[in-house]
Amino acid sequence: MWRPIFHPSFSRLTEYADDQLSGEVRARVSRHLMSCDRCRRTLGQIRQVDEMARSTPPPALPRGLRTRVLDRLRAGDIVVMPQAVHAPQGSPADTSSRRRLSAIITPVGVALALAMVGLVLTQRDRAAAAASVGTLSFSPTHPLAGTVVEVHYRPAGHLVGDREVRLRGRIRGASIPADRNEQWALLRPRRDGVYVGRFELPAQAAYGVFAVEDTTGERIDTNNGRLWDLRVSEDGSKPGLPALDAEQAEWAPTHFPRAHQAALRATELFPRDPLAWSSVLFFADALSTPEEREALLARHRERFADLHVRYEARTTLPERVLRGLTLYAQGVGDSLRFEYWRGRLVKEAPNERRAVQERMATIFGLYWKDQPMRALDSLEVMWKTPESRLPVVGQQALILAQRTGVSELVSRWTVRLLQSPETRDLAIRTLLDRPEWAPRAMDALREDLEHAPDDATRPLDVPRSRFARVMQEERGHTLALLGRALFAAGRVSAAADTLLLASKMVWDRDVFASAAEVLLSAGDTVTAAEPVARLAADPLPPGPEQTRLIHAVRQYLGPDAWAVQVRRARREMISHTNALAERTVLHGPLDLVAMDGSTHARLRELVGEKVAVIAFWSRYCGYSLEELPALRELGRRLEDTGVPLVVVSADPVDSDAAPYLRRQGYADLPLYFDQGGAVNNAFRSWETPTYFIVDSTGDLRFSRVPRSELLRHVEALRAAG
User: Fold this and answer.
1) Which numeric CATH code is attached to 463-578?
2) Residue 634: CA atoms inside 13 Å, Cβ hemisphere, count?
3) Cβ partners under 8 Å of residue 542, min gap 6
4) What number does CATH give the domain 591-719?
5) Global pTM?
């Protein structure tokens, strides 16, 4: 249904800009501004006019004004108004007066004229401005840790006119949590429209990535998803090795080529650093094809041999060099030298992260099968050393403790793992496996539910409102886990309430089925109808157990009442799914090459003006090969609904990908090669298989969607138009 949008009047926006509104009226205008680009721009123009008026210098006072004012006061006048100084037209006095008046009127008049021009911009112009990207710079470019950094930001269209914006970012470095996104500076506009601010880098800072957002956290400039980065220097002239290491760690999960470039730069600036060369080999190997791999390894074997000779005779070496030579030897496949450098690393730097992993491998190799208690004793020693207290040590110890069957050991390691966010989920699920430990797991789940979402965990490119919805999803899954535990403990009523609440917060078929099972076991078929109708509304065909639930509730309600429930559930599915959609404009022509190697096409031409699924696949990925039957079935289901499927491969056109598909009977798969890498870059897809959904305008709306949820996302997006 179409609904009109009521915008605040110009006078109401002026009152808002002047802080003359209060209470519910101001709150209502604020809510409207969060979702209306047009009114935000108008407000920005009003504030710009105000700022120009305030910054206009006052005119010089006429000579003799003070004397005239005092004379009027002595005469008993209460209101004193300056009187015009009459002068013949064209006289110096007349010209001077008009110049002074012009000094006031001209800037304000120009500002008002500009504001009016802005108000009559076409909708297309506004959209273009809102979609623009700002420019941000740091000074100095490569600061030292612990020093002050100046920030200059020329805003994107959707942030123009804000009184202040926030520089929000994530800084990496020794002893700095790498998963916290903090506000680092408030930026305020100068007269030239550039926003400025400053912040002090932590003493351990190495590298940071930043975005700029409004103070509500709803309008964000992410530099087209690239973010802005800051590399800390150790000498003030170039990025330090810790900065380039941190840059690789930042981008390796989401943008392999960018991480590869950081590794290459490290080898250019620090050509004798083995860890940098090891990283280059790692990224280059992942980005190369099997046909290119042998030549790549030959080049790096030669480089490694030179570094081995350089460092072998030195009796003491930094941890970084030992780690780098160990990894590099392993990467080039030199087993003898790998054992040599591995031995030195473990002996000379036993608590270095890689050394801890090697020590664990030795422990497991010696004691895993026959002496788990001895292995646990060794891991206990490692855990008591703070430097080697890594999450992986606790995880492996818990696995060994479960192998022994000794409850005291399992409990000890589980309690330890509950203290770390990285291992807490594993600990809770371990506790839930044993009825006698389940109460402790349920207490931990309740603790998690009591904690309010921390804005520092909100990704830099996610608006606060969307983050709240994502956190609600997580809360729903935690409730579902608690509900299942309550049901297993025989607390049916509490389990039913908890699972019903969870089913309202997430769209998850397993949660719906769990809630329905518990409610039906309690004899509450009417309430069970809600989660069961959601099962039926989901476009993925139900399994046998879910079919049984649907049949039971449909029989109980009757066809008419059941149809009403399913229609309502489908509306909820569409609303819930689309609430998590994003919009990313895909730039560039995005050229592809068909499986025959000669036909060229653009992605937009392949999908037309339709909602479409884009799958990324590789001949050289085991998971991709296993996915082929499901990928074919997905294509058939999508074809039945008129939704295109495009399978994109970054493999070379002349690779074995197309011949392999023909040999395996998949010649009909709509495979296209991303010869220049533009499509992978646009989607930021560096792993396979992964799935994305674009809308009818060609914009990316859903990223990395699980295959089992693709049909739901497609249907929701199509229903939204």
Assistant:
1) 1.25.40
2) 24
3) 509, 535, 536, 550
4) 3.40.30.10
5) 0.73
